Amino acid sequence: MAVLGNGHAHGACSLLHAAGLGYGASVALDLPVAVRLLDAPSKRSLDDPDQLLDKVLAVWQASGHALPGGRSQEDLHWAVASKIPPRQGLKSSAAIAVAALRALEDASKMELPDADVVAMAAQAQIDAGVSLTGSVDDAWACATNGWKLIDPQADSISEGVLLESPGPSSDDWYVLVVCRGDREHKPVLEDFVPHSGAFQQSLSALQEGRELVALTWNGRAMLGVLGDIAGRKLTNDALLNGARAAGISGSGSALVVVAPKVSTPTCERLKQFFEKQSTVANVIETSFLNASEDE
Questions:
Q1: CA 1 and chain centroid, separation
Q2: H or E element, residue 242
Q3: Do residues 7 and 100 make contact, with C-beta atoms less than 8 angstroms apart?
Q4: What was the pLDDT predicted at 130?
Q5: Does residue 177 contact residue 275 with C-beta atoms inside 8 Å?
Q6: For residues 30 and 68, what is the distance between their CA atoms, to the nearest angstrom?
Q7: What kind and span of H or E run contains 56?
Q8: What does the domain layout of the chain look like in residue ranges?
Q9: Residue 128 contacts by C-beta under 8 Å, 6 or more apart in sequence?
Q10: CATH architecture classification, 3-165
Q11: Cβ atoms of 90 and 11 closer than 8 Å
């Protein structure tokens, strides 16, 4: 078994769910994903219930790129190593799609613009049925650092970037991902309409450069969309225990909690609080991934 190509990406959390107002934003998190393209099946079983990786290969070819070495789709196989809890709103599908496309780039000795990778990742997610909107904002956040405010209806992927920022400083902010197991159901677009006011608050905060405020407002809106009473209580408790921001990510069920690193007792208190909750499966300490000036 030979490795034909390697690709990497990372997870992210929502700042503004794209189904709320038509604009979306997610911020990169240090939750790494590595995907390998192989010439024979891996010994490890592959968890891909939506056939996302098959859709990645189809989109790659539909975009005019040949499969590496003149191989057929049946001759290519995948191995995935991910630190992103799946099906919890932390952009695991977008990250795997991005990393798989980068593995195809590596195997083909190509280096495509990030916008091309994002466009193909979004299309693969639509084709696999794992996204309401194509998740262009998620794909950007998994492919690059920081965050971008995205208009997915723009004429091109590049023109859809309305605002961008390096993101909250990883030196200043402590991030907890509170995992509560797989989401129980996916919302439909009609579920978002009654909560447009909270989504608008999130959008306004992003436009003012207050991304942590946006995270909290978006989280409140999504808890309403999902009718997640337990999640609302946990986020309120997080804020009472010293968090500066707390909210559900994506369509759930994971919560993202942010506290200032300078206050070590606060960070420790928050982690201990969530670890004691019977509804919490596990708690992950991570950080934001900041874009550099060059990026």
A1: 31
A2: none
A3: yes
A4: 85
A5: no
A6: 30
A7: helix 52-62
A8: 3-165, 173-286
A9: 50, 51, 52, 55, 93
A10: 2-Layer Sandwich (3.30)
A11: yes
**86 by DSSP, 3-state: which?**
coil
pLDDT in tens, 231-252: 999 999 999 999 999 999 999 8
pLDDT digits (tens, 9 = 90+) for 135-176: 899 999 999 999 999 998 899 999 999 999 999 999 999 999
For 196, other C-beta atoms within 10 Å of its C-beta total 13
Q: What percent of the chain shows pLDDT beyond 90?
A: 86
- Residue matched to tokens 């390096």: 166
Question: In degrees rounded to 5, what are phi and psi of residue 235?
Answer: -70, -40
133 pLDDT more than 70: no
pLDDT tens digits, 22-36: 999 999 999 999 999
Q: Can you name the CATH fold of 173-286?
A: Alpha-Beta Plaits (3.30.70)
CB contact at 8 A, 270 and 262: no
Question: First CA to last CA across the chain, in angstroms?
Answer: 36
Nearest to 240 by CA among 274, 210, 264, 278: 274
Regarding pTM above 0.70, the answer is yes
Q: What φ, ψ does residue 62 adopt, rounded to 5°? A: -65, -25
Beta bridge partners of 104: none
pLDDT per residue as tens digits for the range 49-108: 899 999 999 999 999 999 998 899 999 999 999 999 999 999 999 999 999 999 999 999
Beta strands in 86-153 (DSSP E): 147-150
d(CA 215, CA 231): 14
Whether 279 contacts 230, CB under 8 Å: yes
Q: Judge whether 10 and 188 are in contact, CB under 8 Å.
A: no
